[in-house]
Specification:
By secondary structure, this protein is of the alpha+beta class. The protein is built from 9 helices and 7 strands, in the order αααββββαββαβαααα.
């Protein structure tokens, strides 16, 4: 049965929420201004959103602060470090270059959002410039910036995200091996997968 309270047009949506405050609009730029560059260079974590024929994808990316390089005010460079080889984000970008990025900075309430278009580069010189311990990424995303703005701190404050007293103990959640076993009818995962997992992760970061 249709939801009688469903909002299905922009006029009804805008009437419900009202007009945005001026500060919500003036903070958006079409380039990386120095203030936004400082936030990008302080961030060790970004969520990368992409879309493709199969749907949407949002992938976590992380490394040392500033791992996303500001090449110039209109270009960001994001190395694709070692992962699980699903390459969902990259598959999407090949077919639809639109991307969204959400930067988090530990201890800071404001987040930074960037929208743009990405291309995948395998330029050897570019890859080598991102090498760590002699290991270069397989590709680098070259992101043409279209919009940049910071998000206010309300979500982070409400979630108490950076409060160490709110950290979740790992034993209170199912392990990676247990999840894999549940999803595969015990073909993959289990205790054998969990044994030494953290050591394997550290050994294969790059």
């Amino acid at each position: 049965m249709p939801d009688p309270f469903a909002i299905t047009d922009l006029a009804a949506l805008e009437a419900l929420y009202g007009a945005p405050m001026e500060a919500s609009l003036v903070k958006e730029t079409d380039q990386v201004i120095p203030e936004y560059r400082a936030m990008i260079e302080a961030s060790p974590f970004v969520a990368l959103a992409t879309r493709g024929p199969e749907g949407l994808d949002c992938s976590p990316r992380g490394d040392g602060p500033g791992f996303v390089r500001v090449a110039d005010e209109k270009t960001l460079l994001l190395p694709d470090r070692r992962g699980n080889n699903r390459i969902d984000s990259l598959r999407n970008i090949v077919r639809d270059p639109h991307v969204g990025l959400l930067f988090l900075i530990p201890g800071i309430g404001e987040t930074l959002r960037v929208n743009g278009r990405a291309a995948i580069s395998a330029d050897p010189a570019l890859l080598e410039s991102f090498a760590i311990d002699g290991k270069a990424p397989r590709t680098v995303l070259v992101i043409a910036v279209e919009a940049v703005f910071f998000q206010c701190s309300r979500a982070v404050v409400r979630s108490d995200l950076w409060n160490p007293e709110r950290h979740v103990t790992r034993k209170n959640l199912p392990s990676a091996g247990r999840i894999l076993a549940a999803c595969s009818e015990n073909r993959v995962g289990g205790d054998a997968y969990d044994d030494g997992l953290q050591e394997r992760v550290r050994a294969t970061l790059y």
